[in-house]
């Protein structure tokens, strides 16, 4: 899709057919994702659309040098790709970037990850928790400023549930939840009151301490 060379507004999000999932199955890719700014960059490119390093710096409250550094690292691991079809700006030097994936999943299979796998997963999950907590904090600040109407405040929220499952049932449950999310996702369908919604999913087995 062509765009003016000096375009600042993000282009339309990719269609469902173009979306892909990032499956983190190696220690190096887990480590690459385990950085708050890199995780935020990927999230912004997915949700807000393609951007230059300068645009990302404005979106995320950092400087373009930091954004450029982390974009290059993310590109090395295949998380982001250049978008030359969006032009190079008025001065011919801008580099547009887009996410190569639409969602991220990582493995808990330590047998395949080797001796450094547990530490890599722990670092990634701690980073994800920080980014997710910040997302909720921003929403709560917006609520306090009166930016969300009662319908959204009633619909949004979190919770937990404890159930008894086998590994096969847990896997099936997660697949079904993904199907429910997909069914309710409006994607590019027009709706006057539609907003971007981030759904966080976690499910882990628990044993009582001995």
Automatic annotation (TrEMBL):
Domain HTH arsR-type: 28-126
Region (Disordered): 1-21
Pfam families in the record: HTH_20
SMART domains: HTH_ARSR
Recorded coiled-coil stretches: none
InterPro entries in UniProt: ArsR-like_HTH, HTH_ArsR_DNA-bd_dom, WH-like_DNA-bd_sf, WH_DNA-bd_sf
Transmembrane spans: none
Gene3D superfamilies in UniProt: Winged helix-like DNA-binding domain superfamily/Winged helix DNA-binding domain (1.10.10.10)
Protein name per its UniProtKB record: Helix-turn-helix domain-containing protein
Organism: Actinoplanes sandaracinus
């Amino acid at each position: 899709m062509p765009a003016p060379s000096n375009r600042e507004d993000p282009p339309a999000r990719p269609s469902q057919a173009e979306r892909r999932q990032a499956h983190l199955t190696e220690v190096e890719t887990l480590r690459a994702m385990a950085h708050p700014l890199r995780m935020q960059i990927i999230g912004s490119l997915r949700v807000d659309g393609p951007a230059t390093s300068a645009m990302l710096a404005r979106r995320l409250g950092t400087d373009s040098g930091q954004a450029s550094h982390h974009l290059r690292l993310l590109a090395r691991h295949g998380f982001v790709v250049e978008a030359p079809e969006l032009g190079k700006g008025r001065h011919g030097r801008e580099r547009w970037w887009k996410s190569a994936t639409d969602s991220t999943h990582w493995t808990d299979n330590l047998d395949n990850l080797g001796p450094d796998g547990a530490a890599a997963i722990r670092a990634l999950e701690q980073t994800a928790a920080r980014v997710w907590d910040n997302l909720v904090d921003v929403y709560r600040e917006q609520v306090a400023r009166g930016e969300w109407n009662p319908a959204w405040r009633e619909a949004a929220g979190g919770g937990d549930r404890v159930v008894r499952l086998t590994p096969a049932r847990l896997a099936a449950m997660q697949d079904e939840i993904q199907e429910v999310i997909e069914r309710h996702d409006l994607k590019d369908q027009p709706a006057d009151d539609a907003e971007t919604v981030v759904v966080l999913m976690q499910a882990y087995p628990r044993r009582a301490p001995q």
